[in-house]
Amino acid sequence: MPTFKKILFNLFAWSIVLAVAFPLFWMLVTSVKPGFELFRRPPTILPETWTFEHYWKLLSETNFLIYFRNSIILSTATTLVVVAVATLGAFSLVRFKYRGRESLAFLVLFTYLLPSVVLIIPLYLLLVGLGVSNTIFSLVIAYTTFALPYALWLLRSFMAGIPEDLESAALCDGATRMGAFRDVILPQLLPGIISTALFTFILSWNEYLYALVLVNSDASRPLTTGVMNMLISSFNIEWSLLMAASVMMSVPLIIVFAFLQSYLTRGFGAGGVKG
């Protein structure tokens, strides 16, 4: 009976995996199918003729590389800003005692619960007033507004799990407050920082609404709005190019997650070990 339950559980688990993975598989297969095979009836799972012409056309005849560069700059800059500010903010909320500290923490969480669309008009007016509208920098500011509250709350939880005795011992040994933060707190906080960075990067990479409203120049568009504007119109959808673009848009996220996953699993127990 236990064996039957195990087999049943494995079948259920693999069914879920296949259901989730099939759209990704179909996207990859469609991107290497010739155009005349896309609408063949009945459809074929694997292409009869494999081709990479869609990737070549995407890279050589469109602005995909410009959008790709913009997304890399945008997501990286947003991640650096959010992680830096959230780390220092979490340190303040956990280690320093001042009036209204808990109220401030809940206020930060409350701002994350606000719908993103509520902030678009105030943000747009602010960016126009600052003279940075329709630029990548304007999107960095906009993305920080909704990524920072969650990142700060997440790092606050990680920071609260670090024993104060470690920091006190460093201060007793002559370390400064910033020295103890750099040498004691940051190594213990590394799993939380990596988790926050991963969340922020994915959020920035996939964001669509703010990029659609705040940027209308090809020189500053990220991938999400650039690909839509380039390949989707009221009369036609370039399915082959769209699937090729979707595959290439997924590659950075897969690489980032694969690279950071080892650090995440290796750092899960780091906070409970005192060197």
From TrEMBL:
PROSITE patterns, per database record: ABC_TM1
Protein location: Cell membrane
GO biological process: transmembrane transport
Domain ABC transmembrane type-1: 68-260
Any one annotated GO CC term: plasma membrane
Major localisation: membrane
Keywords carried by this UniProt record: Cell membrane, Membrane, Transmembrane, Transmembrane helix, Transport
Membrane-spanning parts: 7-29, 72-94, 106-130, 136-155, 184-205, 239-260
Membrane topology: Multi-pass membrane protein
Database matches in Gene3D superfamilies: MetI-like (1.10.3720.10)
Matches recorded under SUPFAM superfamilies: MetI-like
Family the entry assigns: Belongs to the binding-protein-dependent transport system permease family.
Record's protein name: Carbohydrate ABC transporter permease
